[in-house]
């Protein structure tokens, strides 16, 4: 069953030379839109998608109106709802047309049929295991490096935007589409360095609507070690019994640049409001990367700068928490 899901190199080479995982992934995109009507239509629809840009002092937030994301944004992620539905990331339950390529030995790269990006992939582990980053972070480093020429990987925590919290997965977008990847000057100016030696740099970033940590290094072991230290500090300061709420973006060029967004809440009050006050926006890694997804037209039209500030205030950890995490991490 599993093997029947994997597209052969021979088939992929009809689209592109398959000399790297990145190229195979791009070839997979072409293969899927040529063989899967739903995906083809949804990627075509993306061409006419509406966007709005909000300028802040030194950085921007892009809002995208994307009807196709309604299912994901409003997904019920409580235990009962999850148990009652067939897992859409398990190989046996994939639509007949959906094929993938192997990555990192135990992951399948699949085209996401409900895209945010011109090329958007979901990367589930082959086994059905809960979404969990601590022990899988090395996989995220490997995957982001393999795809780094063209794509950026991201991760949504099980209670923080993952619509399949029961099945471990990453996603990948085209590189440099999320504003956070293009605002490094601003980010450096507003970062408080926690560690900086020849091999690795770790900093806390504030005054960016959402507060976060960044790790930069070309050393995989160090990246993993510093991530685990940060994770444990976040876990302790936010008093989490389980995985602390977080989203992660991992980009690789000559080294990794890992953005870690600890979260105060998953969804803002506007998500649950009725009538005029409702804004159906369920922030996850992409939104924290500066690209807000509104699946309802009315929300796209009415959302204001003040709403954006307020939504991040409710869902991002505050500066005091960042300071406490930083102090713990530096101990
Ligand atoms: Zn599954």
How would you characterize this protein structure?
It is built from 13 helices and 13 strands. The protein has a single domain (3-266, 314-330), classed as 2-Layer Sandwich (HIT family, subunit A), CATH 3.30.428. With 331 residues, the protein is of the alpha+beta class. Residues 87, 89-90, 128, 167 line the site of zinc ion.
List keywords for this structure.
binds zinc ion; 13 strands; 331 residues; HIT family, subunit A; alpha+beta; globular
Spatial strand arrangement across the major sheet = 3-4-5-7-6-11-12-10-9-8
Query: Ends: how far apart?
Result: 50 Å
How many domains comprise the coordinates? Answer: 1
* Number of helices in the DSSP assignment: 13
Structural shape = globular
Determine the fraction of residues in helical runs and give it as a percent range.
25-40%
In total, the number of strands is 13
- The CATH architecture designation is 2-Layer Sandwich
User: What is the level 1 CATH name?
Assistant: Alpha Beta
**Biggest sheet overview:** 10 strands, antiparallel
> What low-confidence regions span 5 or more consecutive residues with pLDDT below 50?
none
How much is the radius of gyration in Å? 19 Å
Bound molecules: zinc ion
Mean pLDDT: 95
The CATH topology name reads: HIT family, subunit A
Q: Output the helix-strand order.
A: HHHEEHHEEEHEEHEEEHEEHHEHHH
Structural class assignment = alpha+beta
